[in-house]
Amino acid sequence: MSKPPAKSVVEPNPMDPHSSEIGFSLWRRLLIILTIGAVLGTLIIPFNPVMDKMYRLAFLAALLGDWLGPLLLVWHRKPLRWGWLVASFLLAMPFALPGHRMNDVELRDAYVLRMQELSSTKYVWGGESSRGIDCSGLPRKALRDALLSYGIRHCDGGALREFAGQWWFDASAKALGEGYRRYTVPLAPHGSIQQMDYSGLQPGDLAVTTSGVHILAYLGGEMWIQAEPGIGAVAILNGRHDPNVWFKQPVTTHRWSVLRHGED
């Protein structure tokens, strides 16, 4: 009995238009799924109050997907491609604008107001958002928000770049007390908040415990604001009279470098 003829294997023809259309359709669907994932990541990641390096990298990757996905999807349509590229350039351009001498009074007022707006925010170790914040996250978050707002209002690229740099480079209470990345400069008042002289301080100045484990910010008068782990929230207290363990600790005082332009 003769053997049945062997079945021939039909190789896909890359020149077949139907084959190309199927491949393009699958690629496009995959790209749409990845783009939707990037958009969801951009919206969801900031809800985590703790933004360590891993979360920052994930957020930047999501932003890249937000930009690259739509660009590839419209690449074959020249008007849409160039429209997306021009829009992207216009959105990024403010960060490349020249920096100017910032008005430290305006910036300080916005920064101090933002800290007060975060009053009663729950304490979360490592947090730096309105959904949870820790002692160093409070002044850093408030200053970043003030820098972003200032940069947009004044078209100041220097303020926007400072905002981006402070967002990327995290700084603990100890690091701020040691002048990490020259974010802060030391001041003369020292001792305990309960006993030291406040005359050399301005609203927004920082007090870092000599142990480097806690940071507080001066609001003026005798009032201080802190994300207090014992209370479990951001609290505003009188440094002379209110009972608080941190008011009795030895501290050094510091000022944000961007808030001392008027002293030059």
What does this structure look like?
By secondary structure, this protein is an alpha+beta fold. It has two domains: about 20-95, no CATH class; about 105-264, endopeptidase fold (from Nostoc punctiforme). It has seven helices and eight strands, in the order ααααββαααββββββ. The protein has helices at about 15-45, 55-75, 80-90, 105-115, 135-155, 155-170, 175; strands at about 130, 130-135, 185-190, 205-210, 215-220, 225-230, 235-240, 250-255. The strands form two sheets. The chain has a six-stranded antiparallel β-sheet.
Secondary structure layout plus pairing:
Layout: H1 17-44, H2 53-73, H3 78-92, H4 104-117, E1 128-129, E2 132-133, H5 137-154, H6 157-168, H7 173-177, E3 184-192, E4 206-209, E5 215-220, E6 223-228, E7 233-238, E8 250-256
Helix pairs in contact: 1-2, 2-3, 4-5, 5-6
In a nutshell, what does this entry contain?
By secondary structure, this protein is an alpha+beta fold. It has helices at residues 17-44, 53-73, 78-92, 104-117, 137-154, 157-168, 173-177, and strands at residues 128-129, 132-133, 184-192, 206-209, 215-220, 223-228, 233-238, 250-256. It has two domains: 18-96, no CATH class; 104-263, endopeptidase fold (from Nostoc punctiforme), CATH 3.90.1720.
